[in-house]
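Ticket #4471: structure output looks truncated?

Reporter: J.K.
Steps to reproduce: submitted the chain below (67 residues) through the standard prediction queue, then opened the result file.
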Amino acid sequence: MGKITQNKRMRNYHKIFEQIYENPVMTIYDISVNTGLSRNTVAKYVKEMYKQGVIQGPHIRMRHELY
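Returned output as attached by the reporter:
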């Protein structure tokens, strides 16, 4: 597995940011489908973006399902 260039990583961050900006509660899966990135990559990048302060979460949301 090769290393990703900083330029490509930033382009992927931007793709993810655009999705979150449009819909702040979008799922990792939906971001993955819309950007063409794998779910693992999206999850990893979102964590990195939070850690670096690129994005900030206003709240934590819990999904409720009726049974």
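Triage note (M.O.): checked the attachment and the full token line is present. The longest helix spans residues 6-22.
Status: closed, working as intended.
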